[in-house]
Design goal:
This protein is about 50% helix and about 10% strand. It is α/β, with parallel strands linked by helices.
């Protein structure tokens, strides 16, 4: 009897214990099921404790706040990649900061110096003197090419230069008309032909006409997309050859890049560097209304806009101007020191 009671008691104990284990496992399983494994949620979970509010400078300081270890350097590389600096540029900057950092120094300050070093000094516009200077402007449709040419023309006429424009983007609907309006605003002379005309022929005429009227500078617009079988890059190389044939010499070739396109813009830029020898980049849409501008205005503290560094590091091209709006005066010469200050404020 006593043995039976003990047996029944033990059996009951096993059932109760088994139930507890099963219900706990279910709870764990349910918890897993309810978890959000979307990339955003995972990123928030893994980075939230380390990310401080504010710009890149604040984030870097927060990262170094817990002491410096291998994880800190990985974290810094991560922050830079997230700010659009690009893989090569980020690795290079981390190496530089690592070399220059000493315990107790301000990591944001060290990064600022290295950013400045990478960006190099600001560059003046290189224009031929005593003869017609030519600026060739290339970029994909929508990057802000026509607007940039208009603003640049306005700057140059404002400085007392006689400016001519060549409407060699004969493919995009209304590109010629848009440039005509900018020419009027800037007080510049314009050479254009009907839509679909040969871009090289327009450039040739423009060199002749600008030279004849004694212009100081000719700015040549080009197509950003073609509706013909000729590849765009071949066409751009041809326009450059035609300018030279007409007696012009291309002093500057600017690639207009939309800062909001991030790393895509870098791949895009590589195609252009193969076709024409670029002398610099104009980064447009760096104002607060566009995503790439957050680095300058820090409207949301997300600290993107490292595209400036990516252009320098990945393409080895200087940023010459930045577009900060759609108005005629919204083009500024790029100032590396001011940029580094704002980036790491
Ligand atoms: P294109 O096709 O490369 O000639 O581009 P457009 O010059 O026509 O510009 C495309 C759009 O971008 C237009 O709506 C412009 O007003 C706008 N845009 C150009 N530059 C800037 C800039 O610096 N800031 C902002 N916010 N918009 C710009």
């Amino acid at each position: 009897m006593g043995t039976t009671l003990i047996f029944v008691f033990l059996a009951l104990l096993c059932v109760v214990a088994g139930g507890v284990v099963i219900s706990r496992r279910r709870a764990v399983f349910r918890m897993d099921e309810d978890d959000d494994f979307s990339p955003d949620a995972v990123e928030a979970a893994t980075t939230a404790p380390e990310v401080a509010a504010g710009g890149l400078g604040a984030r870097v300081r927060a990262l170094f706040g817990n002491g410096v270890s291998e994880t800190t350097w990985d974290g810094l590389e991560d922050l830079l990649i997230k700010a659009d600096v690009g893989p090569r540029g980020s690795a290079d900057l981390v190496r530089r900061v690592r070399d220059g950092y000493e315990p107790g120094s301000d990591p944001a300050d060290v990064l600022r110096s290295e950013v400045l070093h990478v960006l190099g000094p600001d560059e003046e516009l290189h224009l031929a003197e005593g003869k017609l200077a030519v600026i060739l402007v290339v970029g994909v449709n929508g990057s802000g090419k026509t607007t940039t040419i208009g603003k640049l023309a306005k700057r140059l006429t404002g400085q007392g230069h006689a400016v001519s424009l060549a409407a060699s983007d004969t493919f995009r609907a209304a590109a010629g008309e848009q440039l005509e309006i900018w020419a009027q605003r800037a007080g510049a002379h314009i050479v254009s032909q009907q839509r679909g005309a040969d871009p090289g022929a327009v450039a040739f005429d423009a060199v002749a006409s600008a030279t004849a009227r004694g212009s100081d500078v000719l700015i040549v617009d080009t197509a950003g997309r073609l509706h013909t079988k000729t590849p765009l890059m071949d066409e751009l190389a041809k326009v450059k050859r035609v300018i030279e044939k007409a007696g012009g010499e291309v002093d500057e070739t600017f690639l207009v890049l939309d800062a909001t396109t991030g790393q895509n813009g870098i791949s895009q830029a590589r195609a252009f560097t193969d076709a024409v020898e670029l002398t610099g980049v104009v980064l447009t849409k760096m104002d607060g209304s566009a995503r790439g501008g957050v680095i300058l205005t820090k409207t949301d503290g997300s600290a993107r806009g490292g595209i400036v560094l990516a252009v320098r590091e990945e393409l080895d091209l200087p940023i010459r101007y930045v577009g900060v709006g759609e108005g005629p005066d919204d083009l500024q010469p790029f100032d590396p020191a001011a940029f580094a200050d704002r980036l790491l404020a």
